[in-house]
Amino acid sequence: MTTAVEVSGTELGGNSVQERITRLERGFGDLDDPGNPLGAEQFVRADRERRILPAAENLLDGFGLNAEFVPRELGGRLEGLDALVQVMRSVFRRDASLGLGYGMSSYMSAVVVWAGGSAGQQRAAAELLLAGGRMACAYPQPAEGNDFLHNRFTTVPDGSGFLLSGRKEALNNAARATSLLLFAHSGREPDGSGDPRTEDACSAFLIDTPAPGTPGFRLLPRRTTTGTRGCLVHGLEFTRYRIGADRVLGAPLAGAGLAARAFPVIRSAGPSMALGCADTALRTTVAFARSHRARSRASLATPRTRTALLDAFGDLLLCDALALVATRSLHLLPRESATLGAVVKYLLPMLLTEMVYDLSIVLGSEAYARGGTYAAFQKSARDLPMIGLGPVGSAASRAAIAAHLIRLPALRPPTDGDAPDRPELFRPFGRQLPSLCPPEPAPPTDGDSLVGSLDRAVEQARGLGGGATERALAGYATALGAELERLRRDCRELVDGHRPPVPRVYALADRYALIAAGAACLGVWQHHTGPADSLLAGPDGAVMVLARLLRRLDPATPKPPPQGVERLLAELQRRFDDARSYDLYATVIGR
């Protein structure tokens, strides 16, 4: 029996990200062991009781998880966003509430401080996090956002400071945070006075969380949610609460720009981390299928079950390829990272929610179990849709993709000298990346590096030669290239119409998101440098992923060759037996 072990954060300071993940996984122990205090049974029970498991928080305290959110130059361990995502997947694999409540809420606040805070504000935030403190944030809500979060704060000048009023109905960790990041719009005094030129402009403030009973402040009752039930979601209400001028983050009235710099980071990171939650859903379903005899409809011997499992595995690989490109683009292609982050935030929640539904058909009534061997599946199914919420939800992300298509209907590579097939963009744990800082405001690039790289990837796939799998890859790559050409044509026609109808723009955004994901998949295959016998090295993995993706674009897409099916099925079972994750990294998980 493998149980949780202590993990020391001080031991991890100089180690590679792979070593840190290994130690964290070992600390969590075997998720399937009923005797493990950090096993699935314990997390399910804590979720049922709407709390985060204290033993898990203690483990993360010892690991020093907050150091992963702090740049190395400020004493932390943050270098590459893709590396941070991998560490956090180990947390989300156990409990999305733990990942959001302990980690993501603080990081969503900190990233704005790293982007626009003064040197003193950055040092203070780093010291707070490294000491184990928590942060909570209230981002401004885009017009296309969700009503669950659609309310705001306002400020009016008051001598050398400001008076803060208003309320936010739902902030994760509001009751436990030491520090609050608040975006507040410029308002008018009750008598109507105020500068109309700055009305509704937005400023960011970093304040200490007021103590209960502080005049002008009220912590609203906890809100319950269907998913991530352990998260402590409260509202905040301020009534002419005084804030000093030194609490402004960055320049006054520059909050919207700061939020815009942070959005690509949180759009890319959150759904990418949540792949750990989807991994648990797939692993639970594989365990269920393997426990059934050959004549059972749920057995791996039946085509229906095999198809559902292989489709889910392929979707996870596809999502991870896109997530990899989006997170690394923040370092390598910062001017394009906003669009790539929007694609991740829009597409991943949709694909993962659909994946879990398809897997639930395999589990049957066990998909609804709230206890027992397979209860982790129901928990994952409830938690995953929550990743589509937030200050930059799916609707706002889809609108950002549509704006990209209207601005760049040709979808060609940039002309500013960046190579459209830049290898580092597609390599998991590739070479050390430039320092991560949310991109400064700058004119957007004149091209699309990811989708623009597809032409060259198609050319390489068509030159493979070989057997049935290689021919299938060439055919699927060619079909994806043809879909891109159709999209380019439709985008040009749309723009020529001057005022494109919204439904048609959004339909094109859906197609673009899938084509971009396919380009990421081909790029990972094209630039792979790992072991020659791995799934990513040969064409089998890419064939199965592209076959699944192309069926979404064209239901008449030919089926993949039997060799590809058998190769992916063997990999699915090997990773289950070896306790490895179902993403690009095949991470050894705790045992």
UniProtKB/TrEMBL annotation:
Q: Tell me where on the tree of life, at the top rank, the source sits.
A: Bacteria
InterPro entries documented for this protein: Acyl-CoA_Oxase/DH_mid-dom_sf, AcylCo_DH-like_C, AcylCoA_DH/ox_N_sf, AcylCoA_DH/oxidase_NM_dom_sf
Q: From the UniProt record, which GO molecular function terms apply? A: acyl-CoA dehydrogenase activity; flavin adenine dinucleotide binding
This chain's protein is named Acyl-CoA dehydrogenase
Q: Which organism is it from?
A: Streptomyces morookaense
